[in-house]
Design brief:
The protein is mostly beta strands. Helix content is 8%, strand content 37%. The chain is built from 6 helices and 46 strands. It has a 17-stranded mixed sheet that branches. Strands 27, 28, 29, 33, 34, 36, 41, 42, 43 and 46 form a 10-stranded antiparallel sheet that branches. It is globular.
Length: 657
Amino acid sequence: MTLNKTLLAILISTSLMAGCNNSDDEVTPVPDNNAVTPPPDTSVVALTNLDTVYGYASENGGTTGGSGENKVEVTVCTGEEMINAIQNKDPARPLTIWVNGAITLQNAKNSRIDIKDVSDLSILGLGTQGEMAGIGFNIVRANNIIIRNLRIHHVRANLGAPGDGISMEGPVRNIWIDHNEIYNSLTVNDPALTDDQVKDYYDGLVDAKGDAQFITISFNKFHNSWKTSLSGSSDSDNFERTLTYHHNHWQNVNSRLPLFRYGKGHIYNNYYDGALESGINSRMGAVIRIEHNHFANMRNPVMSMYSQEPGYWQLIDNLFENISWVESPADGIVAGANPQSTGELNVPYNYQANLIPVHNVKATVLAYAGVGKIDTPPSPGLCAVPEPVEPTPDPDPVPIDPIDPPAQVDWASYDGSQDPFAANAVVLADGTLSQFARQQSGGADEPNLFSLNGDGTVRFDSTASGADRSRAKLTNVLPDDGVYPKFFTLLMGIKGNVGGNRILETEIALGDLAASSDTSRLKIVFRNDGNNSGVQLENANNGSSVTAGKGNEPDAIDMSVYRVYHFTISMTSPTTGNVAVYVEGNNTPLLALEGVTMRPASTNTDNYLQIGDAGSSSYLGDIDWVLWSNAGAYTPQMLKGLLPTDIGDITGYEAQP
């Protein structure tokens, strides 16, 4: 565009001079009605500044990672080597870790790579060989971190980690995520999974939560993802986050490009190609400068939806190609076919040397985004393939479930007559009093969505904002001595809803202080949403989710009425055991899993019972009471007449005549 204006100025100047030199003749300009506007330049802009940090990561002293005086460099082939290098980093010296192969769950012997309580660190792939296959980064309480030139993919959301390719949970400062290829899959080869379970199989590609500031995400290729990138985990995650996204390629994704709550965002020179549902979603007062981006073949590139308060945007010279706008007034606003700015953001840094014309964005981003586009040292040679390990035959299974009924059970109980967070709301098995604790999301207390009905029951209702989490947690519900087998019996008197909402989430974490590796948890989702209704155990069956009483199957149960739900857990080891689900005192289990690998706990020492909502769906249900015991895994037949008679409706568990 600048070249065209310069040429026009020269032509006008020459014409005026010619007029002055021929003063005897009057020259009358003739309009050129057949003038053709030349097509815009769509070529690749040659970039020479790929190693320069632009955007918010250039502020606050800049982001240098593992470079600088007295730096240390190591090359790793396994996740175990990477974890050791991070944990043993000298705080006084910058560290660069070169990745020379595929980092996996197996060679890491862990479910994630923690970058925690560390500063001045770079992790970079060598050439095109650096890969994070099924394992991601968890950045917590860290400063001055660079992650570049890595292929990060298929990070499962149910393996004891945040489930993101890169998760940043504040406080974090000065993070540069650059020239990576990060992806999952929009499909999962498991016909037993529902549509919602497929969407939750993986989580985000790059997420920022809590107090995360001075972050730049640049020249990455993001593709094949349901939940691509978010800034702010919920509407209560109120922090002044500052992120820049520039020169990224977003392809074949569903939404969150990014989803941005609170704070300030600058999104420039990105190429978007295909979004099934939506693009940039500015929410909860966030202000985003959206500049020189090319949006193509997608729906609702810019919008503010699904939060209690809107966010804002400033639109500067963006290109919209083959776009469909779908209005949804009840859920928020979309920029629409004639998009206008709704806010203004002036960024504090200089980025003009990095800003290219919008018509050059597509070709330039395709040429430069992803791995193998920056210079790295030569590889010292491919990583050695480990020797195969001969499998050890599994011993014959030993029955672990109790077969004799107890004479009595010392129950821990919550009777629903008080708010779960109220003092003395819980009676423990030894007779002492306790209470559930409110949890936090992004460093802020979650809202209390429990309310008393006045009849000895409590209602849980998150329908006002499905994005809000609200969890009541009680810790130390099992022995933490590392001795197996472990047992847990849980009974809940629950009434569902008739509106098609989910009802309640319950989670039992089975870790202990003696654990040095993965332990287990059982996540139960009571659902009444059409064909997905029933009692769902998330990822409990060797990584797959299963549902008892499912709405579209012959044994479907009506989840809207009051019932007693009964769960037993018998753990043979920290990661394997038996699970059974019973309903209404019927001794035939509605669902039984034997010898399964259960879902890993988020932390090995997690040991708790939690009720409420930890996701992003709307829940509505009533709780009459909750009983639990770690003395055994007791069937309904064993417990006839052994439930407290004054706790509420115990239909199906009365004493037998």
